[in-house]
Design brief:
This protein is α+β, with helices and mostly antiparallel strands and 454 residues long. It has six helices and 26 strands.
Length: 454
């Protein structure tokens, strides 16, 4: 947290709000803003402001992309804008609305500190079992659970805090799926998955990607997207009129994304599985030694990269690594190396290996590797991914087929040719023998005729 500066110049706090703070925090690599500040909270006195009136809607990629209006009054000294960002993945912390991230309660005044606790949920359960505990603070890095009586808040990195128990919300009301703008997941096997409908109309798979799906899941109260689907994965949709969306991924509702209506096939519906605080279930085969799997993409040519069943951290992930992943899977090249869990959140338990490929290795296992530095720890948005050249695999398969078929066809043709030659020679042999017999008969008859004449 601190006063916001661009190139050393502060930003004026006129009209400064959370949407502006969200843009700043995401630009710096954090999840979102927790709180914004005014009046040079962190001591900035410089009056050479680079922005005097920022107007962000919260979806921009950079603060400089936000709209600016001519200030109605000057911005004096001591009016720098500030922000406090969530230093970890906020959406992973909130398994319900009563948890807070990067906040410690009654710091240094705990009733008990318990070591080696696996999760914030487990820490809350210990608080429930303790009569003197009203609140808890869980430290992610040390796995320490502090049981507390009060909740005086202190900013503390990598901590999760909450009350003894969270109110159990009543059963969610049935969504009015046919009402305008209401998003629903239908035809799935559970509430967190299905083909996507808005106002009773299916969403088209055209332009459907992780960013669109992320908006849907968060709008429905889930923490993020696990997997996207196309081709009406959960069953034939009620076409032909469908809605096509294009989102940045930061919108709070799908209706805030740009959209258009078109006519598509009943089998071109978009689908999604949202993250309900459980990790993606990889096929068991992905856990085999040296096994590489791509998961979360729209096909086998793309996805977050898993090695031996664990996601790879995107720290240092580059095109050379991506290329070797693709060639290891039978593709000829990589189109893109992705970062930031492009294809949905990954589990916390990252691979303990960091790869450093040159680009000419036969397999990912042959690359230089070292022990992971832990830079992605507790951040499910740090999975490395890849998009492989899908066409190259088809060409490769075709060339393989040709390489196999061509020699085989040559051999078959050669055998047929030899058989034909042999049969022809046999026929010629018969003809030659018949010709010799005919010559003998003619010669014998000739000599006989000549003797009778004499």
């Amino acid at each position: 947290m601190g006063d916001v500066k661009i190139g050393g110049r502060p930003v004026c706090d006129h009209h400064w709000g959370l949407p502006d703070g969200h843009v700043v925090c995401r630009e710096l690599g954090f999840a979102k803003a927790k709180k914004v500040f005014e009046k040079s909270k962190f001591g900035t006195g410089n009056t050479n402001y680079i922005i005097r009136d920022a107007y962000c809607n919260g979806t921009e990629k950079r603060l400089l992309d936000c709209g600016q209006k001519a200030p109605k009054k000057t911005c004096p000294g001591g009016r720098a804008a500030g922000v406090q960002c969530y230093t970890m993945d906020y959406f992973n912390i909130l398994n319900n609305s009563c948890y807070e991230g990067d906040v410690a309660y009654n710091l240094g005044k705990s009733n008990a500190d318990i070591q080696n606790i696996d999760s914030a949920n487990a820490c809350q359960k210990l608080c429930q079992d303790c009569t003197t505990c009203n609140y808890f603070t869980y430290q992610l890095t040390s796995k320490t659970c502090s049981l507390l009586s009060g909740k005086k808040e202190t900013v503390a990195r990598d901590t999760v805090s909450g009350p003894k128990s969270c109110k159990n919300p009543s059963a969610s009301p049935v969504r009015a799926c046919n009402s305008a703008g209401v998003v629903c997941l239908l035809q799935g096997g559970s509430p967190d998955e299905g083909n996507v409908y808005v106002g009773g109309r299916p969403v088209s798979q055209v332009t459907w990607d992780v960013q669109n799906a992320r908006v849907v899941c968060r709008e429905l109260g889930y923490v993020d997207v696990l997997e996207i689907y196309r081709s009406s994965h959960f069953g034939k949709v009620a076409g032909p009129e469908m809605i096509k969306y294009s989102c940045y991924g930061t919108e709070t509702s799908l209706t805030h994304c740009s959209s258009s209506i078109g006519r598509y096939s009943d089998y071109e519906g978009a689908g999604v599985k949202c993250h309900n605080n459980t990790a993606a279930l990889l096929p068991q085969a992905c856990h085999a030694p040296n096994k590489i799997c791509l998961w979360g993409g729209a096909g086998d040519h793309e996805g977050n990269v898993y090695f031996q069943g664990k996601p790879i951290c995107d720290d240092g992930w580059n095109s050379a690594n991506a290329h070797i992943v693709c060639t290891s899977l039978g593709f000829q090249e990589a189109l893109q190396a992705t970062t930031g869990s492009e294809f949905g959140m990954v589990p916390y338990d990252f691979s303990d290996i960091d790869f450093d490929c040159h680009g000419d290795e036969e397999h990912l296992k042959n690359c230089i590797f070292s022990e992971a530095k832990g830079k992605c720890k507790y951040d499910k948005h740090r999975g490395a991914g890849v998009r492989c050249n899908y066409a190259s695999k088809s060409i490769s398969v075709l060339l393989t087929v040709i390489n196999i078929v061509a020699p085989t066809m040559f051999i078959i043709t050669l055998v047929i040719g030899l058989v034909y030659i042999c049969k022809t020679q046999k026929k010629l042999s018969h003809i030659t023998n018949d010709t010799k017999e005919l010559r003998r008969a003619v010669s014998k008859q000739y000599h006989k005729s000549s003797s009778d004449y004499i």
